[in-house]
């Protein structure tokens, strides 16, 4: 289901609040969302206290040279891959000097990409010595897939931060 603009704004506000409460900084690595994730975070008042920045790594060469995704991994599996997403999240945290990184990579369409169907997306979170990724399979057009991925990336990182607070 396509998140409404209000859902996106609330998810971004929740993330900024969780990061502020925890006293950590954030960075984004975006491929298919093309800056939408960073835009949503920056729209929240007070985001400058927790958001260090992001890398829009649309091209595989940028994923490799800036974020440190292994070239061999990109060559063998393509950019739409859970391990690529993990390297992207780790790389953006390192490059931006943040405590946590979150990444998005996937096939937004209209055609499949790297042998992956339209709507296949990988999101990853890196921080606190851990990294994990999740697979999502969205329906809809290109914009809808991008919005769903941005929303879920915000929620995924918020959940990770809130889990850390409660443990």
Could you please describe the fold and organization of this structure?
- With 167 residues, the chain is of the alpha/beta class.
- The chain has one domain (5-166): Alpha-Beta Complex (Maf protein), CATH 3.90.950.
- 47% of the residues lie in helices and 20% in strands.
- It contains 6 helices and 5 strands, in the order H-E-H-E-H-H-H-E-E-E-H.
- It has helices spanning 5-22, 36-42, 60-65, 71-77, 82-96, 142-166; strands at residues 26-30, 51-56, 100-106, 120-127, 130-137.
- A 5-stranded mixed sheet has the order 2-1-3-4-5, sandwiched between helices.
- Helix 2 (36-42) links the parallel strand 1 and strand 2.
- It is globular.
- It starts with a helix and ends with a helix.
- The mean pLDDT is 96.
Summed up:
By secondary structure, the chain is of the alpha/beta class. Helices cover 47% and strands 20% of the residues. 47% of the residues are buried.
């Amino acid at each position: 289901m396509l998140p409404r603009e209000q859902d996106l704004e609330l998810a971004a506000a929740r993330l900024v609040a969780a990061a502020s409460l925890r006293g950590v900084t954030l960075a984004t690595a975006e491929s298919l969302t093309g800056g939408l994730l960073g835009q949503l975070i920056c729209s929240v008042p007070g985001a400058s206290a927790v958001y260090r920045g992001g890398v829009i790594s649309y091209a595989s060469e940028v994923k490799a040279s800036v974020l440190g995704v292994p070239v061999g991994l990109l060559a063998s599996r393509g950019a739409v891959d859970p391990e690529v997403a993990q390297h992207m999240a780790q790389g953006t945290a390192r490059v931006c000097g943040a405590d946590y990184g979150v990444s998005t990579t996937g096939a937004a369409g209209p055609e499949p990409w790297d042998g992956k169907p339209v709507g296949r997306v990988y999101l990853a979170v890196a921080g606190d010595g851990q990294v994990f990724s999740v697979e999502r399979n969205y329906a809809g057009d290109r914009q809808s897939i991008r919005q769903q991925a941005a929303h879920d990336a915000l929620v995924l990182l918020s959940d990770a931060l809130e889990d850390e607070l409660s443990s």
